[in-house]
Specification:
Layout (H helix, E strand, L loop, with lengths): L5 E3 H10 L5 H9 L7 H20 L5 E7 L8 E7 L2 H6 L2 E3 L4 E3 L4 E5 L5 E5 L6 E9 H14 L17 H17 L5 H8 L9 H15 L3
Antiparallel strand pairs: 1-8, 2-3, 2-8, 4-5, 5-8, 6-7
Helix pairs in contact: 1-3, 3-8, 6-7, 6-8, 7-8
Length: 228
């Protein structure tokens, strides 16, 4: 299929998170060298949050992504890929996890930071070797820029390409009201996790994404507002 002018998944994620587009082949070293921030965990949280924001935008129909199903990553024995296709709404829900170092979205579990034997930092996922992912994901540039503009219109904070503070994201002001409700809930319910609390208020969050997507967004927003 013919690809229109596009931006890679990693460039889009780092533009959203840091206002600094970085290519996939450069991101592991950028994280390891502290070029995206000295606090590694905060950098990881911003990367994961921006990846989920991309998936939320795709699910809402704001952006168009193209990728190809891959079974294994480059260098894996027996790796195979399928032709490029346009991701569907179901794909954004089914493959919500970003794999750093590759322009890929994976359907697996929780993100963890790992350092390999060469000291290269990457975001790894349990069970990745046998996993299925969308590799070589690119975003049609026009839809990405329109999505940023739309979110900027709904949010007084400027869009990333106009100097939006890293990690502010769409619906930041609207989410703040819900985050404060979550704060009160967690204070009154010791031991409650941000993810669980977010699930109790997800239906109050602004946006057309699924409740699961809004729950993840609220949990991320809470952790950024009230880091433990």
């Amino acid at each position: 299929m013919t690809l229109q002018p596009r931006i890679t998944l990693t460039e889009a994620i780092t533009m959203l998170a840091f206002d600094n587009p970085v290519k996939a082949r450069e991101i592991s070293r950028a994280i390891a060298d502290g070029l995206l921030g000295a606090d590694r965990q905060e950098v990881l949280n911003r990367i994961a949050g921006a990846a989920r924001e991309i998936c939320d935008a795709g699910f809402a129909g704001e952006i168009e992504c193209v990728g190809r199903k891959a079974y294994g990553l480059p260098g894996d024995a027996g790796r195979r890929t399928e032709p490029f296709v346009t991701l569907t709404r179901a794909d954004y829900q089914g493959y919500p996890h970003y794999i750093a170092g590759y322009d890929a979205l994976w359907k697996g579990g929780d993100e963890t930071g790992e350092t390999d034997e060469q000291g290269e930092f990457e975001i790894a996922f349990s069970g990745l070797a046998s996993g299925e992912c969308f590799a070589d994901v690119v975003i049609v540039r026009d839809t990405f820029e329109l999505s940023l503009q739309a979110r900027s219109t709904n949010n007084p904070v400027s869009a990333a390409k106009r100097g939006r503070p890293a990690g502010s994201g769409g619906f930041a002001l609207q989410d703040r009201i819900v985050v404060e409700k979550m704060r009160e809930y967690i204070t009154n319910q010791p031991g409650t996790t941000p993810h669980y609390a977010a699930g109790q208020f997800a239906d109050q969050a602004t946006g057309n994404a699924s409740l699961e997507c809004r729950q993840r967004r609220l949990a991320r927003r809470y952790r950024n507002t009230y880091p433990q």
